[in-house]
Predict the structure of histidine kinase.
Amino acid sequence: MVATSLLDALDAPDEDDPVRPRTTRDWAVDSLTFVFAIGFAIAVTAQEFYGWGTPERIGRGPAWLLWLDLALSLVLCVALWWRRRRPVSLALLGVLFGVFSAASGGATLTILFSVAVHRRFPVAAALTAINVAPTLIYAWLRPDPAIGYWATIAWTTVFASIILLWGSLIRSRRQLVRSLRDRAERAEAEQQLRVTQARQLERTRIAREMHDVLAHRISLLSLHAGALEIRPDAPAAEVARAAGVIRASAHQALQDLREVIGVLREPAADGGPERPQPTLTDLNTLVEESRAAGARVTLELPDGAESPPDAVGRTAYRMVQEGLTNARKHAPGALVTVSVAGAPGSGLTIRVRNPGPITVGAPVLPGAGTGLVGLAERATLAGGRLDHRREPGGGFTLEAWLPWPKT
């Protein structure tokens, strides 16, 4: 019981060479090795009986020993079909046969080759040495008058060493191929992961653009619709003008949505950002849209002809846009002050400030509550910072600083 457990532990496959199903190639190789071992056993036995050019070899043992040698050799040849799963057990069995058997030499060398291929070098070297050791006894019990005692031991050692090195070389090559294949699979998996991450980042960016663009447009629509709801008796001209603004805002919202979704369908022609990508120069248009909707907004832009880089201006635009949207949601009718100031080297400061709401009964616009979170993320990605705080009396201030490098 203990011996069986020990043999099972020794025959357990290595982690770097697991047992796999036998392929067609494996069946062909096993068949050839089986035929080789059988032929070797028959040839050695015939040599013992008939000499074949070396008559001094005849009669190196009684006839019953020669037939027993052949029979046990055939048993070891049949056991070769299990050499892939139990090479250590078969190698130890070959040690017992090696004390008196010459015909089992072919099967023993084949088993040692399997050990060298499928087991680590220390294990293979130890089993090879153990299988060579019985030659000391075999060469004494059945001396070979053609080559002598020490020559028999030397040649056995040489052949066993060649088999050990050959099998170890094949094992090293298989490990190298397996390692290269694993690296290729890992590289492919990492590439797929990078593609997935890039897609996720692109989806996040598009979702952020949709939030920034559509929240602004839809808040304008809600503001006009709320005005019509509050004043159902307004003059027809004023109603028509408000309806025209609603129609124009809805059209612009759809256009912005098409441009954002278009990023998913058409790759960028160059390395620049895709549309819609407004910059700091578009703040006047943004403020005019808010004023046309009835909001009170003042805008202060930096003096001088130099404008910040497009990436900085784009981030500043989105921050002002989100600030105006939040003011319309939470402080309808309040005066919103937008100031943008800065210079190359000192950075760009954006400030959106409004007092508490002054319009009583104005409809409350719904919101997801993630606008400021998105702005903070934008500022961090741009290398800047964002601060927002409530003022006494219910007011609110949104302030951000963005780096503006010197050109």
Summary: Strands lie at 296-300, 335-343, 347-354, 385-390, 396-402. Residues 268-273 have pLDDT under 50 and may be disordered.
